[in-house]
Specification:
The chain has about 375 residues and is an alpha/beta fold. The chain is built from eleven helices and 15 strands. The strands form three sheets. The protein has a six-stranded antiparallel sheet, with helices on one face. It has a six-stranded mixed sheet with strand order 8-12-13-3-14-15, sandwiched between helices. Strands 9-10-11 form a three-stranded antiparallel sheet. Strand 6 (about 95-100) and strand 7 (about 105) form a beta hairpin.
Length: about 375
């Protein structure tokens, strides 16, 4: 899959843009604050229909504008098939979002998620490793939402039941809280199973990628959850019942997949706590490469790679190792942004070069 065209209106600081993108992608050079990261964010918005950086939709609207509009023309890679247009529009006054696929408006956003496939790489990815369990849950749930049908809907169901249960707990109504145990447990069992299965399938590959990126110590990745494997919804129901008194005291649900973690270790020590900055960076890159391989396996086509100044903090040896893996894992379209030509490895400079200044993109 690759993007043949991109349309941007009133998104962040970007000028109106109607862009033809070559199959190999492009290199975009621009100083800090000129919009190069915003361009990658606009592309990734069409994957999940929300901000890559966690901003609210109203915060993405260009100053002084009423809303924003994004569109991408997707080439599936199949000879003879026409381009498919995916659009997302947001209206600031009503705070409504409209998404279309192939000209038809979707009833639910989950129907459009994954129509565009892209994987972001950024120095900020180290936060997946160094932050708390929530950052790794978010990484994993985004990956599974794009690669597995139904995961996003199950997440929504679990979050709704959790919100309702917590509201009852805050009112001190244990009987009301128990009414939401079953829907919560049903969704929780499926979510925890999907996370566990992914970690078990790709754990060995995480170890291989870390070694190929130059990490001499053995890296491991394991999913950790309060419920035992195979317990299903009944296991979560037992945990909810056992924790009810504590939950009433705290006014929040203390058992559930919202407390899971994707634990990363290096030489049997916690990577988050004991790893160096370079090891954190290696672990984060390995996770992004795993994301790319997962999407390729699920959809049969490589995602678009979005490289946001990703090579600046890597020494020459790790740059070369990463480039070799990129050629293997992400052989398709790549959008590369950097502040200067010198910070783009020669192996990625074999594509058109564009300049971005003050939100204006020029070839």
């Amino acid at each position: 899959m690759w993007l043949a065209g991109l349309t941007i209106r009133a998104f962040r600081n970007l000028a109106s843009l109607d862009l033809e993108i070559p199959p190999e992608g492009a290199v975009i050079i621009g100083g800090n604050g000129h919009g190069k990261t915003n361009l990658l964010e606009a592309i990734y918005y069409l994957v999940l229909f929300r901000s890559l950086r966690g901003a609210r939709d109203q915060e993405l609207v260009k100053f002084g504008e009423a809303g924003f509009f994004l569109a991408a023309d997707r080439n599936s890679g199949d000879v003879g098939l026409p381009l498919q247009r995916i659009t997302a529009g947001y209206e600031g006054t009503t705070r409504r979002k409209k998404v279309t696929v192939g000209g038809a408006q979707v009833a639910k956003l989950s129907e459009a998620v994954g129509q565009v496939l892209a994987v972001p790489f950024s120095p900020a990815d180290s936060g997946i490793v160094t932050s708390g369990p929530g950052s790794r849950r978010r990484y994993l749930d985004i990956l599974l939402s794009v690669s597995e049908r139904g995961h996003l809907a199950r997440l929504s169901a679990m979050r709704l039941a959790l919100k309702q249960r917590n509201a009852a707990l805050r009112r001190g109504r244990g009987d009301e809280a128990r009414a939401f145990d079953q829907p919560f447990a049903d969704a929780a069992a499926a979510i925890a199973m999907a996370r566990r299965c992914w970690a078990e399938r790709w754990g060995g590959r995480f170890r291989e990628l870390s070694a190929e990126l130059g990490e001499p110590a053995t890296s491991e990745m394991r999913h950790h959850s309060q419920a035992s494997p195979g317990d299903g919804a009944e296991g979560w129901l037992r945990l909810l019942a056992a924790s009810l008194d504590r939950d009433l005291h705290r006014g929040a649900t203390t058992a559930g997949p919202h407390r899971d973690d994707l634990r990363l270790t290096l030489g049997e020590r916690d990577l988050r706590t004991f790893g160096s900055a370079g090891q954190h960076r290696t672990g984060a890159i390995a996770l992004r490469l795993l994301e790319a391989e997962t999407l390729t396996a699920a959809h049969g086509t490589a995602p678009v790679a979005l490289y946001d100044d990703v090579f600046a903090e890597l020494d020459g040896n790790r740059q070369e190792r990463l480039l070799r893996l990129i050629r293997e894992v992400l052989p398709g379209q790549a959008m590369v942004v950097a502040p200067r030509d010198a910070e783009v490895p020669a192996g990625l400079f074999d594509r058109p070069r564009w300049q971005i200044t003050g939100g204006v993109l020029e070839r």
